[in-house]
Each structure stands twice: as structure tokens, then as C-alpha cells.
Amino acid sequence: MNFNVCYKNNMQKINVYKNKQHSMNGSVLLVDDDEAILGLLSEYLALEDFEVVGCGTNGLEGVNLYAQYKPNFVIMDIGMPNYDGVYGLEHIKKINPDSIVIILTGNNDKLITQKIIQLKATKILEKPYPVEKLVSILKSFNNPLEIHAV
Questions:
Q1: CATH code of the domain containing 49
Q2: 20 within a domain of the structure (yes/no)
Q3: How far apart (Å, rounded) are the C-alpha atoms in residues 126 and 146?
Q4: Which residues of the chain have pLDDT under 70?
Q5: Which has the closest alpha carbon to 62: 36, 28, 88?
Q6: Contact between 20 and 1 (Cβ < 8 Å)
Q7: What is the pLDDT of residues 119-142, one digit of tens each?
Q8: β pairing state of 50-56 and 26-31
Q9: What is the pLDDT of residues 98-122, one digit of tens each?
Q10: How many domains does the chain have?
Q11: Is the CA virtual torsion 5, 129, 93, 79 positive or negative?
């Protein structure tokens, strides 16, 4: 089985063998300037049957990739060089006000947090955030009746 995984701002195919029947949980766009986080998240999400459609390293790349792929989910950092996650969130919401954008942030600035809330981020999670819980949150959007302790 082939999956896209983000490394060094490029999508690479890796082979992942799975014993269970394949079922996709949705498409995901990852936006973070930390390549280690992009690699970790893309590998883990692939193993959990999510399709990683793209990886960006700033808000502008995130917006362009969102417009191109229209993923089910966006996972985005706030603190990035040049075009930050606030820029990305604002412009993705202009493309699709109903987009599911999960913000991962280590930023404690209350003004930025208020801006993120004002722009209607779907969820704001503090870094570091356990990837298993992030996957549970994503899966809960596919099955709203399922209750996840997050």
C-alpha cells in the first residue's frame, strides 16, 4: 500500500503494509515549518488511514495547497516565517467558511488566540499535543456520535 509522507517539504511515497481492510478517514493538509513534525504527523496519519494530500511550511503554501486539494481537514501551526498560521486560517476560511482547521500552537499570546477564535478555527490545541488524541479528534468529525476523551 502506498502513502504520501512529507519530508523536506516534498511528498514522498512510502510502502506501508497493513493487515486490516483499508478504509480512508479523510484527506489532510499539514502546515508547519518544523519538518520533523510534518514527517511524524504524515506517517502517523497514513497509518491511521488518512490521506495526506500535501504539506506546507507557511500560511501562504497552506492556502495554495488548500485551494488545490480541498482536503477534509487542515492541521496548521501558528508560528511560521513569512506567512503565519493566522494568515493561512484567514484565507482558507475565505475559500471555505466551513473548512475544518485545527490549529496547533505553542504561542501563549492572548491577542493571537483571540484572532484565531475570531477567524473560527475548528479547534485550538497546545503544542506538544499527543498525536493519538489528534487522530481521535479527526475521527470524531467523521463519526460525531462517537465520544472521544480529548
A1: 3.40.50.2300
A2: no
A3: 23
A4: 1-23, 143-150
A5: 88
A6: no
A7: 999 999 998 889 999 999 999 987
A8: parallel
A9: 999 999 988 778 899 999 999 999 9
A10: 1
A11: negative
- CA separation for the pair 41, 53 (Å, rounded): 12
Q: What is the largest CA-CA distance in the chain?
A: 47
5 domain residue, yes or no? no
Closest Cα partner for 25 from 42, 55, 45? 45
Task: Name the phi and psi angles at 18, rounded to 5.
Answer: -125, 140
Q: Which domain holds residue 115?
A: 27-142
Give a yes or no: residue 94 inside a domain.
yes
In a domain, 9, yes or no: no
Please say whether the beta carbons of 59 and 84 come within 8 A: yes
Q: Are 55 and 28 in contact (CB under 8 A)?
A: no
